[in-house]
Amino acid sequence: MRLKIPLIIFIFWFETFLFAAEAGMPQLDSEYWFSQSFWLVLIFLVLYLSLSKFFIPKIKNNLDDRENRINENLDEAKEFSELAEKKNLEYIKEMSNAKKDVTKIISESKKQLDKNINQKKIEFDKELEKEINKAEKEILDLKKGSKEKVNKIAEEVSSKIIENLTGEKLNDSSIKASVEEISKNRIGKYL
Amino acid sequence: MAANPMHQFQVYRLGPEIKLGNIDLSFTNASLFMLISALTICLFLFFGSKQKNIIPGRLQLIAEMFYNFISKMISDTAGSKAKPYFPFIFTLFMFVLLCNMIGMLPYSFTVTSHIIVTLVMALFIFIAVTVIGFLKHGFKYLSIFVPKGVPVVLLPLITIIEIISYLSRPVSLSVRLFANMMAGHTMLKVFGSFVISLGLLGGWLPLTFSVALTGLEILVAFLQAYVFAILTCIYLNDALNLHH
Fold first, then answer.
1. Chain B residues whose beta carbon lies within 8 Å of the beta carbon of residue A60
2. Predicted ipTM?
């Protein structure tokens, strides 16, 4: 610290001494004023001409090109998005139409199916009734025929039995009458 | 040794002496740095506009940023009528900015730290703006000295003040840039020369301060170029659009 302070004082003194040696503002020395003005005007003029004739139009072109390109792209994008919107609407329309068609087809086929089923059922019912009727009639016929046959067999059997027992031939009509009478009373039990 | 903070502003001849009659037009270090600035601008804009990429590269982006920056500044302050003057203001801004910035390099020369340079530019702008004003509006241009809505009693005084302020435009414009540049660079130099001696006491602090000051000076370099350009736009606006 003891050494530092004299050192600082010495450096300050040295610097002031140097400053004093070359005092004043070189800016106010008019020796090169004309030279500076001349070169300034010359260089500035050349710079101005080269910038205004060459560089600025080039930069402007670049910027304009970019802007045009961006605008074009934006327009294109807008067009495409409109197209997409349109297509989407079309798609939605198609879809709703298709849905309508589907429901229509479903209901129609259902109706058709119902109709068919009904018709088939009716036909089948008719057929069934017919068959049943036929069967009933057959049964009835069979019933009727069997009764007569049974009666006839009974008559024959009874006339044969009586003939064998008595040796006499009885009147057929009387036998028939008695058989009929018995069968009338008893037949209900079996047929 | 260049310990004098003013030594950096010294102009000296490079190469042979060029004389036109009695006038010395020699190529100096100031001319050299003007040339370097101009060439840097040209190189920068050349590489910034060489490729016509839709997605710009770094240089192209910066060049277009400057273009848009100046374009917006002009349309904001002077309106659409000032569009023909865009190349001039763009050149002016780029030139002042590059002169300031190249002046920030160590051992270089700051062109804009000379009053004669800034004065020539400011005078040119002042005369051009005045001529444009008279060409556009004729003698009606003088009405900018008579503001509207001022009481009649105050009118003579206001008019005199307006005239003085109008005439002092080139002085204020040139001195602002010159003084900022000169003061900034002198300050950098002075603080720079104290870094070692004060560093014995304060350690790294003086160096840190010097670095921070350099950052500030870079900001000032940009800001002064911007101020120079925007004031030109404002003067142009006064000349183009009469009512303010």
1. 67
2. 0.90
